[in-house]
Amino acid sequence: MAHYAIGDLQGCYTELTQLLEKIEFNHGTDTLWLVGDIVNRGTQSLACLQFCRQHESSVQIVLGNHDLHLLAIWHGFGKLKKGDTVQDILNHTDAKKMLNWLQNQALLRQNDECVLVHAGLFPEWSVAEAAEYSHELEQVLRGKHAKHFFENMYGNTAKWSPQLKDWDRLRFIANAFTRMRVLLPENVLDFDFKSVYADIVPPNYAWFDAPHRQNTSHTVVFGHWSALGLVQKNGVIGLDTGALWGGQLTAVNLANHTIHQVQSQSHKPIKK
């Protein structure tokens, strides 16, 4: 019995099946965490979403920013962008069932040793606090106010305070879990930085390099940052290795941190 985590799929279903074959994944005994961004930009978003739903007994996901974007479009908010590849999901006869299932997924999953999130764990939050805040937003997504959240989701709320209220509070929680890469001094989210790690200019820093991080009790497994690539340092494992952009799709065995990869089938240039 093995427990794996795999980086951002973004519609790269062919690579997913190749990687699962490579690690000899068994749905009857093995378990899998996916770091979110199951859909969008790749050509097989529908297949990726159907796979996750079909195998929910062995596969668990967290929501990424592209997954939330799809849900916002479904609810009538947000706009399809030029590179979006989710129309086949929205047009599918089972769209309501699939998207209701997606909307009921978590923002954070954890076991005794690891925490799974899409973009990262905000450094001022302990693992227990992060779990509370994820639950706070998940309850909204699963409740009668979900549509109003998607109406108010888009926006760059960048500074955390426990006193934040209403949509500002929920928007920051969503931003931290699904959009965070680099922080400005005093842990303010920098939404503009999407480049490689070496391009970070002090006093800014990657979220996992933040001074006095409060969530080092667990290994944080995340994706979202394709230009960062594979990273194993400071108690984190970053798994977005740019499968969408001509890089690799990456799996890690969470018991021994062994890395497995397959090459992308995409002809898109690697994103930096």
UniProtKB/TrEMBL annotation:
Catalytic reactions of this protein: P(1),P(4)-bis(5'-adenosyl) tetraphosphate + H2O = 2 ADP + 2 H(+)
Top EC group: hydrolase
The Calcineurin-like phosphoesterase domain, residue ranges: 5-140
GO molecular function, one term: bis(5'-nucleosyl)-tetraphosphatase (symmetrical) activity
Annotated EC: 3.6.1.41
Family: Belongs to the Ap4A hydrolase family.
Known role: Hydrolyzes diadenosine 5',5'''-P1,P4-tetraphosphate to yield ADP.
Name the record gives this protein: bis(5'-nucleosyl)-tetraphosphatase (symmetrical)
Species of origin: Alysiella filiformis DSM 16848
Lineage: Bacteria, Pseudomonadati, Pseudomonadota, Betaproteobacteria, Neisseriales
